[in-house]
Amino acid sequence: MHLHKYEKIWLIFGGGALVLFLLILGFGAFYLGTHPQSHGVTIDPENVEANEAFERENLGLTQVDDDRYIVNIVASTFSYDLGDDGEGNAVSHIEIPKGSTVLFQAVTTDVIHGLNIAGTNVNMMVEPGYISSLEVELNQTGEFTLVCNEYCGVGHHMMFATVEVVDDESGNETAAE
Ligand code: CUA
């Protein structure tokens, strides 16, 4: 069988690209340990409070260190439970200093919901039976909308809260110098 010169070049190019990409994929997966964000942590969706993080008083924003926070969220039709403000009012707005590292942990007690903080990297599915978690550094100030981006029923459009990233007056900048 005669192979035209250009056909040979293209075959080598195509085969080479395949081998190269497989090597990169293997390097990332086995050497760097790259894996999906969710580690498949399970939870009983009918009793999320059995997990300490999702006990009523641990919902919402918690500071765990100088510039580290945890936000625990229980999603259900059709709201995000971010705890209350201590006076019985549901929290729907949280403020986080710029430059903080924030671990978002979310569960749902009913159907699949989404958890997207528009304009940031935070974008997760929240599935019954699993804990969705994602750690991010929030470096851009402004008010961001936390929205459900998985259609979950007639009140889907009412599922939102706001996350405000504020300039840290006490000065992360001075600390960085
Ligand atoms: Cu929850 Cu859409």
Write the layout of secondary structure elements.
Layout: H1 5-31, E1 41-42, E2 60-65, E3 68-76, E4 79-81, E5 93-97, E6 100-108, E7 113-117, E8 123-126, E9 130-138, E10 142-147, E11 160-166, H2 172-176
The structure holds dinuclear copper ion (CUA).
Describe this structure in words.
The chain has 177 residues and is an alpha+beta fold. 18% of the residues lie in helices and 37% in strands. The protein has two helices and eleven strands; from the N terminus they run αβββββββββββα. The protein has helices at 5-31, 172-176; strands at residues 41-42, 60-65, 68-76, 79-81, 93-97, 100-108, 113-117, 123-126, 130-138, 142-147, 160-166. Strands 1, 2, 3, 4, 6 and 9 form a six-stranded mixed sheet that branches. β7 (113-117) and β8 (123-126) form a beta hairpin. The longest helix is centred in the N-terminal third of the chain and has 27 residues, at 5-31. The termini are far apart. Residues 171-177 have low confidence and may be disordered. The structure holds dinuclear copper ion. Dinuclear copper ion is lined by residues 113, 148, 150-152, 156, 159.
